[in-house]
Amino acid sequence: MTARYLIIGSGVAGLAAAEAIRQADRSAAITLVSDDPHGYYSRPGLAYLLTGEIPQAQLFPLRETDWRALGLQRVTAQVTRLEPAAHRAVLADGRALSYDRLLLATGSTAARLTVPGSDLPQVVTLDSLTDAQRILDLARRARAAVVVGGGITALELVEGLRVHCRRVHYLLRGDRYWSNVLDAAESRLVLERLAAEGVQVHPRSEIAEITAHRGRVAGVTTTAGEHIPCDLVAVAIGVQPRVGLARAAGLQVERGILVDETLRTGAADIYAAGDAAQVYDPRTGKATLDTLWNIARGQGAVAGRNMAGANERYIKPLPLNVTRLAGITTTIIGRVGHGLDADVVGIARGDSETWRQLGEALVAEDASEVNRLRLLVGPRTLIGAIVMGDQRPSRPLQRLIGEETDITPIRERLLAPHAPLAALLAEFAESLNRQNALS
Ligand SMILES: Cc1cc2nc3c(=O)[nH]c(=O)nc-3n(C[C@H](O)[C@H](O)[C@H](O)COP(=O)(O)OP(=O)(O)OC[C@H]3O[C@@H](n4cnc5c(N)ncnc54)[C@H](O)[C@@H]3O)c2cc1C
Question: Is the whole-model pTM more than 0.90?
Answer without folding.
Answer: yes
